[in-house]
Amino acid sequence: MSDKRLRSAPFGASLLPKADRDQLSDSNDYGAKFEGFFLQMVIPGLEHRVKEIVTKTLGSNWKVKSIGDNRTEFEVSKKGDTLSVKEAWDKTYDLRSGPGVVDAQPLFAVPIPSSDWNQESKQAVAGFQHKALDESSDVEWSLKQLRVLEAWSRFFPDPNLPPGHGIVIGLPDTGYQTD
Q1: Left (φ > 0), alpha (ψ -120 to 50) or beta: where does 64 sit?
Q2: 7-38, pLDDT tens digit by residue?
Q3: Confidence category of residue 142, pLDDT binned at 50, 70, 90
Q4: Average pLDDT, stretch 71-82?
Q5: Please, are residues 73 and 39 in contact by the beta-carbon 8 Å criterion?
Q6: For residue 116, is pLDDT > 80?
Q7: Domain residues of the chain, as ranges?
Q8: Which strands make up the sheet holding 101-109, listed edge to edge?
Q9: Could you tell me which residue, 88 or 170, shows the higher pLDDT?
Q10: CATH fit for domain 18-109, picks 3.30.1510.10, 3.40.50.300, 3.30.70.920, 1.10.10.10
Q11: pTM of the model
């Protein structure tokens, strides 16, 4: 391709123009702290393959831990040294190109502002007057909205008998009795 904005990069690497990539600085502008990666493999039992991919892409000092019950998902972490947001995403693209990798995502911790946002929301809820909707007092409200009662009256004209009276539905996989 002759487009100068695209650079040769590993499969899945960012195809943003350089000016846009440069805006993704090495600083964590939102206070996001990189904690590791989530990695999902195509079939269960590939922990050895994950370790090979991680060692090749990130180095040998990363810990791979199987998570979940299906044995296809892994958490990749490292003590101490951390990556910037940009570095984490760049490494994520590299991990995604590994053989057998279905998905790779960076894991970030984002601090919650220390303001009293929770207190403010509690005050707003405390001032809210709970009032049940008129529809809540009528248990057949949804049936009326869907005109179910009208449909039942067409097929079950006797109002003294419940809808479906006299109809037997059976599933013959284990047998059934009519009495």
Answers
A1: beta
A2: 223 333 344 444 444 444 444 456 778 899 99
A3: confident
A4: 88
A5: yes
A6: no
A7: 18-109, 131-165
A8: 63-67, 73-77, 33-41, 101-109
A9: 88
A10: 3.30.70.920
A11: 0.49
One-letter identity of residue 41:
M
Q: Scan for tokens 């994950």, then name that residue.
A: 50
Residue 26, token pair as written in the block: 């090495």
Q: What is the DSSP string of the chain?
A: ---TT----STT---S-HHHHHHS-SS-TT--EEEEEEEEESSSS-HHHHHHHHHHHH-TT-EEEEESSSS-EEEEE-SS----HHHHHHHHHHHHTSTTEEEEEEEEE-PPP-SSHHHHHHHHHHT------GGGG-TTHHHHHTTHHHHHHHH---TTS-TTTT-----TTS-----
